[in-house]
C-alpha cells in the first residue's frame, strides 16, 4: 500500500473522530449529569432511611447539613408525608436515566441527545412541582411554620432553583439536535462516523494485504 493511501486512511480516521466528538454531550452537560446523579441519590436515600438519617439518628452524620434543611423544609422531617417519599422513589428513576445517558454518551449513541433532553424535562418539572407543593398556594404553609423569608431563600430556594435553571439550559442547548434541521445534521454526522470507520477499516485491510503480498513476493 502506497503512502498516499495510508494518508487517506488516516484522514478518514481523523474525520471519524471529529464527527464522534460532535456527537458527544458538551462537557458541562456531562458533568451536570454526574453531579445530579450523585446529589439525587444522596437526597433520596436520606428520605428512604428516615428516621435514622434525621438529626439524632444513627446515620445522621452522613447527612449533617440536613439538620438545618429539615427545620425549614419541614416536609423532610415528617416521616408520614407520602409526597416526599413518592418523589424520592422517582429520584431513583431519574438517577437511573442519568446513568443510562452517561453510558450512551460514551458509546456515541444516536439517542443520547433525546434521552438527555427527556431526563432534563423530568428534573425540571419535578423541581417545579416541589416548589409548588412547598408554596402557600398548594399546602397552606403546613410545612413552613415559623420560617423567615431569609431562611427559605437561603436553604430552600437557592439550593433547589439550580435543579430548575440548569435542566432548562440543558434543554435549550439540546433543542437544536431534536428539531428537524438539527436532527438531519445529527443523522448526517452519525452516517459520516460510520462511513469514516468503514473506509478506515478498508484502508487498513488493504494495507495489511499489501504487506502480506509484498512479503510473499520477497520470499519468492
From TrEMBL:
The chain crosses the membrane at residues 25-45, 52-69, 89-106, 113-133, 153-175. Keywords: Membrane, Transmembrane, Transmembrane helix. It comes from the Eukaryota. This is Uncharacterized protein. It comes from Lymnaea stagnalis (Great pond snail).
